[in-house]
Design brief:
With 215 residues, the chain is mainly β. The chain is 12% helix and 42% strand. The protein is built from 2 helices and 18 strands. The chain has helices spanning 2-22, 30-33, and strands at residues 27-28, 47-49, 53-55, 64-69, 73-76, 82-84, 87-92, 100-102, 106-110, 126-130, 137-143, 149-158, 161-168, 175-179, 184-188, 190-193, 198-203, 209-214. The strands form 4 sheets. A 6-stranded antiparallel beta sheet has the order 1-2-3-8-5-6. Strands 9-10-14-17-16 form a 5-stranded mixed beta sheet. A hairpin with a 3-residue loop joins strand 2 (47-49) and strand 3 (53-55). The chain is globular and about 50 Å long.
Amino acid sequence: NSRVFRTTSVRLYGCAVEAREKGVPVMRAMILEFPDDPACDYLDRQYMLGDALLVAPVLSPDGGVDFYLPAGRWTSFLTGQVFEGGRWLCEKHGYLSLPLMVRPNSIVPLGAVDNRPDYDFPQKVTFQVFELQDGASAKRTVPDTKGKPALTLEARRKGQRIEFQVQGDRKENWFIQLRNAHSVRGVENGTAHPDPQGIIIAPEKGAERLVVDFE
């Protein structure tokens, strides 16, 4: 799946930079990200890939896999289906699939290149926004190939409005995608384009602030 490759290449590199700077591992036990959820204390067949992606490897011959979702509205990265957390799920997958769930209130960068793992990550990057709840905020930084911050997007939601702020030296050729959103009422400093996975927002050249109003 090219989308998975483009996501993991950018995100893995970002996690590696974070591991170097903060000592936080790339592959994280569930209890590390959810220390207040007692159900995560002994989970050893799933893990967090960074702070936003939950991975549950398929270990059974028949493709069946049981995994636990902490509280919140989680999104399947592959299908876009949304699941309420705080419970166990049981799914069956083939050789080319597995549970890859995105934590609510997360921004996941999607790169533009799918034929190599190392490239100019900020160039044409798409920041995918997942289940940003009213009153919540999210932030994501994409590093350059030297591990330095190149582009940072911060999102804050209040009611039916999301305000985005971008910082960094690479403020051109980037996009926002609101996963599972189907329409917006208006965009300040940008334009909205329909997509099967959710609305894509293209910022105006040099824009540092965008505001998206929902229906």
